[in-house]
Amino acid sequence: MNDLYQSFIKNERQQQLFSLAENLSKKIKERAKEADRNAAFSFENLQDLKESGYVSLTLPNEYGGEGISLYEFLLLQEKLAEGDGSTALAIGWHLGIVMELRDERLWDESVFKNIAGEISKNKKVLNRASTEPATGSPTRGGVPETSAVKDGRSYILNGRKTFTTMAPALDYFIVTAFMEETDSVGSFLIKKEDPGVHIDPTWNTIGMRGTSSDDLLLKDVRVPKERLVELKNAGGKKSAKGWLLHIPACYSGIAIAARNEAVRFAKNYQPNSLDTPIAEVPHIQQKIGEMEIELLKARHLMYSIAERWDQQPHQQEHMGPELAAVKLVVTNAAYRVVDLSMRIAGGRSLSKEYPFERYYRDVRAGLHNPPMDDITIQMLAKRAIENE
User: Fold this and answer.
1) Phi and psi at residue 371, in whole multiples of 5°?
2) Which residue of 58, 249, 272, 343 could cross-link 99, Cys pair, CB 3.0 to 4.6 Å?
């Protein structure tokens, strides 16, 4: 077992789950370079995830899943991201949303039971489609321009959604739309085969290229009213979203991959100006030690907050600031670790023959995932002021 995970795996169940993620991580690592080069989501990776049962892990046991905890979710996602950050982040949205639906009971039980069967038996995958060109991230509070107009027992949806991760591979989209009739925002469950649903392959970024976070286009999509699955500010929702910690877990996994690559490089690279590999050089050891410190601080914070989330459900609604702090600390630490790994490898870290430059591009994306650093800082400041 990798020493980096040894202190976080606490029982036999977690070891078995970790072994599943470890095997998948090795497989998807082999395809990471190709997915990055083509800026395309790997359907081969998704097939491996489906065949292994990974896509069902956050479902309740009674619906064919493993009912994994937040702590276990992060452990698996971090390891998976070591192999390929894009694949881990993409499937993390699916698993996290299923966990959210499971724990917060946002949907009618019959609707959730049906979608759970689709996931566990037919290996279907889903994601939310909320971000739009004009409104930006929904975490900033923008009202969607996508419209839902009632027409008899159906709604007609029109609009464009951006950053729809894993778009070409999704079977279901949970789409937010403004409902003028009731002056509210609803979430509609849309199937990929519904007439008027199109994917616009717009994803062409420097990092996380394999997520295929394309645009979703809706043109007069007719949705029966039974598929209006959520209304904004509906009762029972929690203000804190523990499942979103899959984001920092993913970037932590990328940082671990960069750390491992840098240590291997340092132990094996010996220029003719030295009598030993560069791992024996003091300033290289300094950088390796700095990577270890960053990972120790960030990961112990992440797993301790996840454990508290699992063990103290009565406190979850008050944990928003802590969850946001985890995202800020871990993603920024991951960014520093990857930078240090490249300093260790020197000019070779810029070569496409090594994975460092891909790790660097991928980890940079973490700074733009929600919640943003400025929101987190303000949240923590306000809490400190109010509690004094």
Assistant:
1) -80, 150
2) 58
Please name every residue paired with 172 in a beta bridge, in sequence order, or none if there are none. Answer: 126, 191
pTM: 0.95
DSSP string, 145-197: S-EEEEETTEEEEEEEEEEETTGGG-SEEEEEEEETTTTEEEEEEEETTSTTE
- Do the bridges between strand 126-129 and strand 147-151 make them parallel or antiparallel, or are there none, so unpaired? unpaired
- DSSP three-state, residue 67: coil
> Residues 145, 178: contact at Cβ < 8 Å?
yes
Give the three-state DSSP class for 214.
Answer: strand
Specify burial of residue 135 (Cβ count, 10 A radius: 0-12, 13-18, 19+).
middle
| Three-state secondary structure string covering 334-373 | HHHHHHHHHHHHHHHHHCCCCCHHHHHHHHHHHHHCCCCH
What distance in Å separates the CA atoms of residue 369 and residue 127, rounded to the nearest whole number? 15
Q: How far apart are CA 60 and CA 105, in angstroms?
A: 12
Whose structure tokens read 């491996």?
48
Instruction: Write the CB contacts of 46 (distance below 8 Å, at least 6 apart in sequence).
Output: 87, 91, 125, 166, 169
Contact 338, 254 (CB under 8 A): yes
Domains of the chain by range and CATH?
A: 3-124 (1.10.540.10), 128-231 (2.40.110.10), 242-387 (1.20.140.10)
Whole-angstrom CA distances from 113 to 105, 129, 172, 174, 366 are: 11, 21, 15, 16, 33
Per residue in 265-280, pLDDT (tens digit) is: 999 999 999 999 999 9
Question: Coil, strand, or helix at residue 213?
Answer: coil
